[in-house]
Write a structure and sequence with these properties.
Chains A, B: It catalyses: O-phospho-L-serine + 2-oxoglutarate = 3-phosphooxypyruvate + L-glutamate; 4-(phosphooxy)-L-threonine + 2-oxoglutarate = (R)-3-hydroxy-2-oxo-4-phosphooxybutanoate + L-glutamate. Chains A, B: One of its GO terms (molecular function) is alanine-glyoxylate transaminase activity. Chains A, B: Pathway: Amino-acid biosynthesis; L-serine biosynthesis; L-serine from 3-phospho-D-glycerate: step 2/3. Chains A, B: Its cofactor is pyridoxal 5'-phosphate. The structure is a homodimer. The first copy, chain A, is of the alpha/beta class. Chain A folds into two domains: about 5-15 and about 260-355, Aspartate Aminotransferase, domain 1; about 20-255, Aspartate Aminotransferase, domain 2 (3-Layer(aba) Sandwich), CATH 3.40.640. Chain A is about 40% helix and about 15% strand. In chain A, α1 (about 20-25) crosses α8 (about 240-260), α2 packs across α8 and α9 (about 260-280) packs parallel to α11. The interface between A and B is large, with 60 and 60 residues.
Chain lengths: ~350, ~350
């Protein structure tokens, strides 16, 4: 059993059923069986189905297994961008997606807003083939609203929209019909160890990749048409992280069984408690001033007492997150993921009151 | 506890200390701590050191964490080949590396020999920048000898040599000073679940990548100079598969403690037993006719009774491997990895005698 409760925004607290599924996976020899066996094909099928149901994916959207959200940025640029993309960035991770495009020698554009602040303009460069946005900017706790995503879609019907749902999924409802591709890593909301990334794409993405392939290499085993070829058989091109694919499916099933709507309502309830705790505390203030853009899953407060607060909690077995990057010493970040019970969040809020 | 003993050549039997380290990793919260924490940096350092010692890596060789051997092929072509590579292939996996180069639009060359047979010529195309060879062709059990590797090096001093050591490491001794880059995945000789790949490179590789970067993108987070930048701090660009990196280091340490030389001697002893069992059996014959090219870690026999033999063993809780690809029904493959005890291999040989 773990020693502490982690409220860090990823790597994070393991999902409460993680160890149970891990034991079962070992009992079933999941790490030793062939990845081409009927047993494992069934595992992939079940994980796909559970994720599709939990995330409410529309028809025509496929799920592929990568190894991290970093890899999703890499493969999206490699597969879906010929010349240029446009990125909306107001934090480290949204900025990094743009950096990856530049690394790939794309002539990409960026609309930057100072960290945590809404964008002054949502105008997209005309030649951009793909727009990168971040549902939940984990570094500063900024959320792109569903209305903003829908508006972006309306104004750019011919461009691909790529949505970062790291630390957003499965807690925040997302209308996937408004985007073409989305991705997350499992060490946030799904409460798993890092090492598995999920890449969601629609048919428009596949068409774009096929168009690009006429003139430029898409890479090799993780070229989208190749992922699609294997995915259609519930397989992967390479021997994948079979253990984690199995456990991810089981955790998704657990959340469905306990009620996805309930989990999302609980997320809102817990976020409300945490936000109140921030508002009522003399040492804390919201970092994201715009209420509707405040993340429910990564609650971020600015403070001049980060070290003191973190030490106070750590000595009680609770690990909160520091600020990210340049905010390391001026923020605290509190993850609010499905594995965090209402009781544990209430405990955080109660303890917070004792810090002066 | 697993139900069966897997003699399949990967995914394979878990290392006998795997579960112990897994439990300890969970106790230490390895999957939840920050990948930038001092604790995890220490984990990466220890895993690197254990691997360097176990594999007897010379100075100037770096270890990087990928997610599979497929990814190693992908990243090698992306980072180290500008125009063309040359591949020696006499089985499915060595051929696949060539296919990956073609997928990347390289003008690569291939010297093919029929599966399991020695190469008629070891001549390399003049313009090739990198030579791909396979220490242990897992699909058919063919081993490239150390002498052949040394000869290739002598004849091609200016080209990079990439050695596939999937299913060879850590059992087969390799003189890494004769190659520039090598790679393996952990689900073979290291007895781990799939999902982690190891990429070894030397300074010549870094120079080549830096040369290529002047004109062409190397990708993004896994561009070799970026891996090197993070690796120098015992870090990774992305949040990696922390749990597996921890366990890999512990397994490497276990093998070192029990004696790497002893493990390699045992490998030879067990291979000898398996080869004798094949020679003495009316239904079995060696697939690789050349004795010195026969793999010690993936022992392959041709037979017309694959199904019967596999069923016989499976009913006794022992899982042997089928043939690979087109040999599925005409070969059996028996993995001989460090986790397979001498006793378990003796049991396989004894049981084999009972099949008529």
């Amino acid at each position: 059993m773990p020693n502490k409760i982690y409220f860090t925004p990823g790597p994070a607290q393991l999902f409460y059923t993680f160890e149970e599924h891990l034991k079962k996976a070992l009992f079933l020899d999941i790490p030793s069986i062939s990845h081409r066996s009927k047993t494992f094909i069934k595992v992939v099928e079940e994980t796909n189905e559970a994720l599709k149901e939990l995330l409410e994916l529309p028809n025509g959207y496929d799920i592929f297994f990568l190894n991290s959200a970093n890899e999703a940025w890499d493969r999206i640029i490699q597969n879906l961008v010929i010349n240029t993309s446009h990125h909306f960035a107001n934090g480290s991770f949204s900025k990094k997606f743009y950096d990856f495009a530049i690394d790939h020698n794309k002539k990409s554009a960026i609309t930057e807003s100072s960290a945590g602040n809404p964008f002054q303009s949502m105008k997209v460069s005309e030649e951009a083939e793909l727009i990168g946005i971040t549902k939940n900017e984990t570094s500063v706790g900024y959320t792109f609203t569903e209305d903003e995503i829908a508006q972006l879609r309306k104004e750019n019907p011919d461009k691909l929209i790529a949505l970062d749902i790291v630390s957003a999924s499965p807690s925040l409802p997302v209308d996937f019909s408004q985007v073409d591709t989305a991705y997350f890593s499992v060490q946030k909301g799904f409460g798993m160890p890092p090492g598995l990334g999920i890449w969601i794409t629609n048919e428009k993405c596949l068409e774009k990749a096929e168009e690009k392939a006429k003139t430029t290499s898409l890479g090799s085993y993780r070229a989208l048409p190749n992922l699609k070829k294997f995915g259609a058989k519930n397989q992967t091109p390479e021997t994948p992280n079979m253990l984690f694919i199995y456990i991810l499916g089981k955790i998704a099933q657990d959340i469905i069984k306990a009620g996805a709507t309930r989990m999302r309502n609980d997320t809102t309830y817990k976020a409300t408690l945490l936000n109140q705790a921030i508002e009522n505390h003399p040492l804390l203030d919201h970092f994201v001033s715009s209420q509707k853009h405040r993340s429910k899953t990564t609650v971020v407060a600015k403070t001049s007492e980060t070290e003191k607060i973190l030490k106070f909690f750590e000595s009680r077995g609770l690990v909160l997150g520091t600020g990210y990057g340049s905010f390391k010493e001026n923020h605290i970040r509190i993850a609010n993921f499905p594995t965090h019970s209402k009781e544990s969040v209430e405990m955080v809020c109660d303890l917070m009151k004792k810090i002066e």
